[in-house]
Each structure stands twice: as C-alpha cells, then as structure tokens.
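Folded chain entry
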Amino acid sequence: MSEDANVRQAVPFFRVANMEASVRYYVDGLGFTIKTRWIDDGKLRWCWLELGSAALMLQEFRTEGYDSWKPAGKVGEGVSICFICEDALALYRAFTAKGIPASRPFVGNGMWVTSLADPDGYRLEFESLTDVAEETQLSE
C-alpha cells in the first residue's frame, strides 16, 4: 500500500484549558457533535467532534501531576484552521444569532471568509467559494 492511499484524514488536536467551556463553545455555539469521548475519573478528558464532514479533537491539559503541562501563553495563539463550507455567510449568521462573535465576512482568494476565536485562542476560519469581487465586505 502506498503512503498516499494509506492516509485518509488530518484532524486538528486542540489542547484546551477548560474542557467544559470548549465543549459548550463547539457543541452549543458552533453546532459540532461529540462522536467519541474519553471519560476518566468521571470527567470528560478528550473528545472527537464533527461538523458536517470536518472533525477536530479536544483534550484538556493537566496542570499538575503526571503528564502535566503549563503553556507559556494562550495555547491557540498563532493556530488557524480553515473549514471549507458550502455557505460561510449562512454560518456567520447562525453563529452571530447565537451571540458568538465572528468577523464580518469578506471576500479573499475567491472565498467568503468569516473568522472566530475559540476560548483558547484557536482561530477558526469558515470559507466558501464565490465569484464576488475580491475585498468585498458583507453589508447587512
């Protein structure tokens, strides 16, 4: 089997400071569904989330004891994930209707783009193809 036939998917794995806050943001706010989870000592420690055909994983990092880690800054700083969508404008409207801050959509590289930041600073870009002129901003 060749390497290209063996690799099926890349899934971002976000280490998060507060699993409850992150799950609320992704599930209640953005509409992701928990597909798989690891419960340890009665606490959700890791989960696999899906939205459409996109997926990501979350795991709360321990700050004490075995396998602990203390980040120097905000863990998501400098990390962007692009979600290619059918209609980024519809997602922008759905997110903001739920009170989730999202950037006003604009056209860049032939795509409508709206950006959000999760509780740990991971940047989420939702993009959809368009033939609207570059640098156009959504006016509502």
